[in-house]
Amino acid sequence: KTDKERKAYAKIAEKELRDEYEGELTNLTISQGKLLIKLIDRETGQTTYALVKELRGAFQAVFWQTIAKIFGSNLKSVYDPKGEDAQIEEILQYILKGYY
Asked: What is the C-alpha R_g of the chain?
């Protein structure tokens, strides 16, 4: 409810997520990372940049956006299921229907 409680909760949640997924995420290829950025936007309705900014602050968001740009990615990428991400959406729909 308070800002202090929110920060404490975020810190605990971040540690749990790091413990569970950090190994897998550090081994992603650049193209897998780009796909993950798109899928995060699809699932949350917010760009990865906005999420990092909200949860970690503006400085961290700018820092990670700079790193992403160095590797040819963009944390501000928006998922477009009817445009450039139509093939991804088609594959996801097959998966959700149980074809894969």
From this structure: 15
